[in-house]
Structure formats: C-alpha cells, structure tokens
Design brief:
By secondary structure, the protein is mostly helical. The chain has one domain (17-146): de novo design (two linked rop proteins) (Up-down Bundle), CATH 1.20.1440.60. The protein is built from four helices and two strands. Helix 1 (40-56) packs antiparallel against helix 4. Helices cover 59% and strands 3% of the residues. A hairpin with a 2-residue loop joins strand 1 (17-18) and strand 2 (21-22). The chain has a two-stranded antiparallel ribbon with strand order 1-2.
Length: 153
C-alpha cells in the first residue's frame, strides 16, 4: 500500500503534514537567529529528510534524479550531526558549510520536480520552504561561528 501525501491542514491547531511527517508550525515562517534553539537546526534537517522520503514515493519517471535528491536531503542532517562533534570551530564551520552545499543541491532537485496534482504542489512548496529555512539557519550559524575570536581564517 502506497503512502499518501496530504497537504491539507487537520482540524484545530494541529500543524500541516507531508505523509506521516508532522511539520512544525514555526517552520513556515522565518527565524530570528537570537531566538533559535540549539537543536532546531538538527530537528528541521531530520524533518527535511523524512519529508523528502515521503514526497519521493510519488515521483514517477525521475529515476536517478530522485535518488540524488534523497541523498542530498539526507546529507544535510548528517553533516549537521557531524558538526556537533567537530574538532574545533574550523571543523564545525566546514561541516556546516558542507550541509549548506547539500541544501543548495536539494533546492536544485526540488526545482526540477513537476507536481502531478494540487496536493503534490503544496507539498513541494512546503519542502522548498523548509529547505530555505534550513539554509538561512545554516548561514547564520556559520556567520556566528566565524565571528568568534578563536575562529582561525
């Protein structure tokens, strides 16, 4: 049985979903860097990978492009996780920069996909928005780390 992607909001104040993935309410808005929680970036990258897997089940005729999209979207979270245990600030920044590159590649693949119906179009829009939010958070984190006095150029 194939998983169905639903872009519809549920009743009440529940957040929107892509497949079985519940999207955080705040991911649909932009973030102020001073109010971000430490693990929000990791949480969002996990949501991106899970939502990408759910969305990819409905992609027909994309073959290797779909596989590369899944690799790039999951690599975002993997590099963010690696950054947490980096060997100093330079390694931390390097891992976050690699995650940013993977986000940019994910953005590229998302631009190539053509939704088959309105629900898929909504889900694709949500994925693009989530990916964009992660990119902005990564840029802010990189800039913050580089502004530290112990940053080596």
């Amino acid at each position: 049985m194939q998983q169905r992607i639903s872009a519809k909001h549920t009743l009440g104040n529940e957040p929107p979903r892509i497949g079985n993935i519940i999207l955080a309410k705040n991911q649909l808005t932009s973030y102020h860097p001073t109010t971000m929680k430490q693990d929000k970036l990791a949480d969002f990258s996990l949501q991106l990978a899970q939502a990408a897997m759910a969305y990819s089940q409905h992609l027909r005729g994309y073959g290797a492009k779909k596989d590369q999209f899944l690799r790039a979207s999951s690599a975002v979270g993997a590099n963010i996780a690696e950054a947490k245990y980096g060997n100093g600030i330079a390694d931390f920044v390097n891992k976050l920069h690699t995650a940013l590159k993977e986000c940019n590649e994910t953005k590229f693949w998302l631009e190539l996909f053509t939704p088959e119906n309105g629900e898929q179009a909504d889900d694709l829009k949500k994925l693009k928005r989530l990916n964009g939010n992660i990119m902005r958070m990564l840029i802010q984190s990189i800039n913050t780390a580089k502004s530290r006095p112990d940053w080596k150029r």
